[in-house]
Amino acid sequence: MPTLIVTGREDLRTPVEDARRTAADYPNVRLLNVPGAGHSVLSSDLSGCAARGLAAFLAGTTVAACPRRDRPLLDPAPFIPASICALPRVPGVPGVAGRTLTAVAATVVDATRQAARAAAVDQRRTGGLRRGTVSTSRGAVTLRGYETVRGVRVTGTVSTRRGGRAQLTVSGPSAAAGTLTITSTRTTGTLGGQRISLRGSGPLG
After folding, report:
1. Rounded distance, CA 165 to CA 188, Å?
2. CA-wise closest residue to 48 among 112, 123, 124
């Protein structure tokens, strides 16, 4: 029976070495290594090589090797702690509100990266790390209850146009709830009843 094993070169859970050991157990196998992809290869491969390989295998034609790249299409994502308690406060904003601002920044970074990945494979909407969704439209990224840091949920729109702005509502059991308006020159709003007014784009700068 012909067998195709697709593995992501950046997969930390089941690395390429595991895929090679599995392939050794099959007499008629093709191992497709996909650069820049993680554990969920078909959904994390922005190059389309995994999907093309699968289509070729099912059609009974030759599965072409994926070309190597000098660098990934997206740089590795920054580490984001799961708990808001592990995040630093934004300078000048004390208490939970300061940590919430940092969590909002981390959430927006994660959401826009996921939106870019989805758009690269012609998907306009994808799920958040813990809950919620992010979707793309012309000139904007829209978050709906998007949660990256546990218990901090962000809803609103982030403009992707030059000089754009973000209008965000923050909620969740771990957050200082409130609303934020972020432009290239100022971050304003309230979090946990505390007034926020920072020069520049604050945590998103």
Report:
1. 11
2. 123
Average pLDDT, the chain: 88
Among 146, 149, 140, 154, which residue's Cα sits nearest to residue 127?
146
Q: Are residues 187 and 131 in the same domain?
A: yes
Q: Are 93 and 101 contacting, i.e. CB atoms less than 8 angstroms apart?
A: yes
pLDDT tens for 25-52 read 999 999 999 987 878 888 778 778 999 9
Query: Cβ distance 107 to 175 under 8 Å?
Result: no
Q: Structural domain of residue 38, as residue ranges?
A: 3-58
Q: What is the dihedral of CA 68, 74, 78, 84, to 10 degrees?
A: -140
CA distances from 97 to 53, 154, 194 (A): 48, 14, 7
Which residue spans within the chain are E strands per DSSP?
Answer: 3-8, 29-34, 125-127, 131-137, 140-147, 153-159, 166-171, 178-182, 186-191, 194-199
Determine the pLDDT at residue 15. Answer: 86
Closest CA to 145 of 124, 43, 135: 135
pTM of the model: 0.68
| Under 8 Å between Cβ of 109 and 182 | no
d(CA 99, CA 104): 9
**SS3 (DSSP) at 189:** strand
Residue 154 lies in a domain: yes
Residues 6 or more apart from 24 whose CB is under 8 A from it? none
My answer on whether 142 and 97 are in the same domain is yes
* Residues composing the chain: 205
